[in-house]
Amino acid sequence: MADGKPINVNDATFESEVLQSDTPVLVDFWAQWCGPCRMAGPVIEKIARDYAGKLKVCKLNVDDARQTATERGIMSVPTLHLYKAGRLVGQITGVTPNFESDIKKKVEPHLQQAGIGSE
Length: 119
Hints:
CATH superfamily of the domain at 31-95: Glutaredoxin
Number of strands: 5
Structural class: alpha/beta
Strand content: 15-25%
Strand order of the largest sheet: 1-3-2-4-5
């Protein structure tokens, strides 16, 4: 874990940081030029802080990690993928009106299943 901060991943580190993680992982597929991605950034950072020790939060710049973005079928940014035990278990595309609560609704059932849900 990165002490409640998102971890930057790329083509070389995606498998080890995300797919091989023992902890559920939320991946933010984003791009520097994407306005909605910049709006989502502070929310993603808050999620990382709120779920520190329970959820790994990663950021993958699609321009720098095109192979992984293509393999994962990323067609638009921002796209969030939730992985558990190396499997995709949830997805959000775009910044929704209730972005933070929508992320929590996707994440929390997978944390609770592992016995580490929020109190």
